[in-house]
Design brief:
Blueprint: H1 10-17, H2 21-28, H3 35-48, H4 54-61, E1 66-71, H5 77-92, E2 96-101, H6 106-118, E3 123-126, H7 135-142, E4 144-149, E5 159-163, H8 165-178, E6 183-188, H9 198-206, E7 213-218, H10 223-235, E8 242-245, H11 248-261, E9 270-272, E10 289-291, H12 294-311, E11 318-320, E12 323-325
Parallel strand pairs: 1-2, 1-3, 3-4, 4-5, 5-11, 6-7, 6-8, 8-9
Antiparallel strand pairs: 10-12
Helix pairs in contact: 1-2, 1-3, 2-3, 5-12, 6-7, 8-9, 10-11
């Protein structure tokens, strides 16, 4: 029976280079030794076929090298794209991403948040379903937490990369009001069992001053679910003249429901999205929406996660402002509503 080849260790590299094991360890991590020494150690490691043992490294450092990414709902196409970009960004920073999906359910979100802590992730990145849940406070005391989109008011987060919903939502409502709309439905991912989300609060505050009558309707982000909700809204006697959707995925449901009901966009109903998914440009007509710079978002999150893990330091809140992407899905209301 052939003998298994012994796995090279840091001690082998130390013997090869004439350095101490501690110096080799620092060099492999790019710490506390000159660049030429780091290069010499890496060359010796490659020559010997050395590979870092993740289990040994975790035991020695108390870190797993894994960052949990808890998404509100991966049915939301925009969140899918952000999750994929975060995975790439964390990998480039020598961190592994563990993706989990709350599926829009606050109870599931709380259970998964605890499970990630139990799995000893070094940090957690959260796209929250329920940003005001009390469980975030306990979780943030046990592990680094960085939130995306909404802040977590009950938790001492390490960092927050949040959306300027005041600017985005107010501009969206102004756009519809200036087009002549007065009766608007806002489709939101917020569930009835969860506290109000900040974007919904902005809708409630801004609408009266713009002369708008607004209905907030909870809506799932998947196409079939969104189409079902949109069909109920558009088929009623008091049909709104415009739909503002807090995720482009929901707007796709409005397009599907309008087609089923024989309604034209924007002649019979205007539609406005909120996250500029690439598919939105391919619709007929193309969807008017708002662009959030995902590359800036991911870079900001990764930088803050690494800083919090390595130094334990908090970062200042980063606020992202949306850029309007006006296209052809918003027009004046139909005359019968005038």
């Amino acid at each position: 029976m052939p003998q298994r080849r012994k796995r090279p260790t840091i001690k082998d590299i130390a013997a090869e280079t004439g350095l101490s094991p501690a110096a080799v360890s620092y060099a492999l991590r790019g710490l506390q030794v000159p660049p030429d020494t780091q290069e010499r150690v890496r060359e010796a490691a490659e020559r010997l076929g050395y590979e870092a043992d993740p289990i040994a490294r975790a035991l020695a450092s108390g870190r797993t090298g894994t960052v949990g990414v808890l998404c509100g709902s991966l049915e939301d196409l925009w969140q899918q794209g952000v999750a994929a970009a975060l995975g790439r960004g964390l990998l480039a920073a020598d961190r592994n991403a563990l993706m989990v999906d709350a599926a829009g359910d606050p109870a599931r979100e709380a259970a998964l948040a605890k499970r990630l802590v139990d799995q000893r992730v070094d940090a957690r990145v959260i796209i929250p379903v329920d940003p005001r849940s009390r469980h975030w406070s306990e979780v943030a005391q046990r592990v680094v937490v960085v939130s995306i989109g909404d802040g977590l008011p009950a938790a001492a987060t390490a960092a927050e990369v949040v959306f300027d919903n005041v600017a985005g939502v107010t501009h969206a409502l102004q756009t519809l009001a200036e087009a002549g709309h007065r009766d608007i439905v806002v489709l939101t991912p917020g569930l009835r069992s969860a506290p109000d989300r900040p974007a919904e609060e902005v809708v409630r505050r801004a609408a009266p001053g713009l002369g708008l009558t607004v209905r907030l309707v909870s809506c799932p982000p998947d196409l079939d679910g969104a189409a079902t909700i949109a069909h109920q809204v558009l088929a009623g006697d008091a049909r709104p003249t415009a739909a503002f959707c807090l995720a482009d995925s929901m707007a796709y449901g409005v397009y599907a429901a309008a087609a089923e009901l024989g309604l034209a966009i924007p002649d019979d109903v205007s539609v406005l999205g909120y996250d500029d998914h690439p598919v939105s440009r391919l619709l007929s007509p193309p969807l008017s929406t708002y662009h959030w710079d995902v590359s800036v978002l991911v870079a900001s999150v990764v930088e803050r996660v690494v800083k919090a893990i390595d130094s334990g330091r908090r970062s200042r809140r980063k606020v992202l402002t949306p850029e309007p992407r006006p296209r052809s899905s918003v027009g004046p209301p139909p005359r019968r509503h005038g």
